[in-house]
Amino acid sequence: MEHDLTKGPIARTLISFVIPFLVSTVIQFCYTIADLVVLGRFASSVALSAVNTSGQIMTIIACMIVGLATGGTIVIGQAFGAGNKARVKHAITGILYVFIGTSVILTLFTVLFTDQLITVTMVPGESAAPAADYLRICACGLTFVTGYNCISGILRGIGDSKHPMYFVIASSIFNIIGDLILVGGFGMGAAGAAYATVTAQLLAFVLSIITLQKSEYPITKDSFRYLSEPFKEVLKMGFPLGLQEVLPMISFLMVTVMINAMGFVERSAGVGVVERVIGVGQMFPLAFAPAISAFTAQNVGAQEYARTKKGLGISITICLIATGICWVLTLLFPEFTISIFSNEPDVIKYGADYLRSYCFDIPLVSFVFCLNGFFSGYGKTRFTMANCIISTFAVRVPIVYLACQIPNVSFVLVGCAAPITSAVQIVIQLFYYRFGAWRKIANT
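and the corresponding structure tokens:
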């Protein structure tokens, strides 16, 4: 299962490692698309709006989990690259305690405050009840989500990106089947989609445990012996990454809240569809971000600093080519793109307007995600977090807020906030790349 990323041709090594990340990302987005299509075709805009809003809350929670797991990947990757197997095992112990604490806290919080979370998001009245049902059911599966991501973080740290891909494939297929049966067959709406999701997450968790137990680093009784240093190290790396993942999602949710406040469920549904479409267009950068983190971490541990910079350049080039194609298609055919997910005229209208400007964000995130992954591999997660905070809450949220104050505002104007935010992030990243503290580690 181990894969040494510090040797061999850089392009071939990086591409072979990132392919499973990409496949996993594609499969996950195929699932989210299928989820929306099933709800859009077999349910109504009420259920679509409910799942969109509650789904964003769950995405925020999942992003914190993914960030913490990525912190574990970086710690393990640096130890593995340095050939320090004892430190790898200690890092696994730290990840296990992060998993236990995170799953308990997040599950209790979400279940206990479901109604308050739904109220805060200002879900249109008819969608409030199904949104609460969806959130409460999905919260019961947070232990599975946390466990799967933490174990995947362990495997990726030692260079194994294939098995996490297998977990995602199995889980997504099971999820789609569950959607078709519970939503399409039994007409259970948002609740049916939630039950299908939780069951699929349980499957991924079980498969991840089985795989880890067959690796060189299985979980034993000694793995639960508390060690403060690796626990703190994983948190030091992972917590900023978690916030970095969460804050943009919070801004997306705030955008949804502002749009929900306008009182039209079709607008909320249209925005939800566009968020998924943009996610599809950004699949390559999303896949490369964690891959370049693991690749960089291993090479930093092995002191192969030149490889990290070459890997960054290759990653950005590939992502720009892929996202450029998606950007052109969404720019030219916005109405057709939205109509894939809903046949309601108002949903198509608002969604297409929002997509016309938002789509410019698709190629820009090639720089944002790859550079974030690169800096994270060097352990500079606090910088990436700070950049995210500045761009999100000093740029994106104020722009959307001001736009929504305009009577009968065009959704084209609202959608401009995302690409402007990414442009600001890139300027800050390039300045840090030229003058930042990471250069001291690389001795350049």
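(Above: one complete record from the training split.) The CA atoms of residues 303 and 442 lie 8 Å apart.
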